[in-house]
Write a structure and sequence with these properties.
Helix content: 25-40%
Distance between the termini: 37 Å
Strand content: 35-45%
Structural class: alpha+beta
């Protein structure tokens, strides 16, 4: 089940590879995600002290009246990956001029997972080609 997607990711970036990561959440955040109160639009993955974090994702409170006063809906959340996957991410993101983009947040076997794409930014003319292909695929509604 998909909880959130990043619609601009495939438009702005050329996705080279994807990696599935777990995400560290608090109990009420899990409930919020499962009810759809989450957005990963405009978020990104950053590596701090050799640990990956999801930055800029918004998880709204499940029950706003019951949330503690210091809850930050946009706090950085740690991603769970193996050491081998982390070293692979660090190597590719630093050497090839790529970036780490969250593609979708989904459920798998009761856990919440994040699909992270290793991506390279598209140039303006690449984006135009994407728009042209999208227009060609959609049937003309007029007529």
């Amino acid at each position: 089940m998909d909880y959130a997607t990043n619609p601009k990711a495939h438009f702005d970036y050329e996705i080279l590879e994807t990696i599935e990561a777990g995400i560290v959440l608090e109990g009420h955040e899990v409930k919020s995600v499962k009810t759809g109160k989450v957005s990963i639009k405009g978020s990104y993955v950053k590596i701090l002290k050799e640990e990956p974090f999801l930055v800029g994702a918004t998880i709204s409170p499940y029950q706003p009246a019951n949330v503690s006063g210091n809850y930050d809906p946009q706090r950085s959340r740690k991603l769970l990956l193996s050491k081998k996957e982390i070293s692979n991410l660090i190597g590719t993101s630093q050497s090839h001029g790529t970036t780490l983009v969250p593609l979708k947040l989904y459920g798998k076997k009761g856990y919440i997972k994040l699909l992270v794409g290793i991506a390279r930014g598209k140039k303006k003319y690449d984006k135009r080609e994407t728009i042209k292909r999208k227009i060609r695929k959609e049937p003309n509604s007029e007529g």
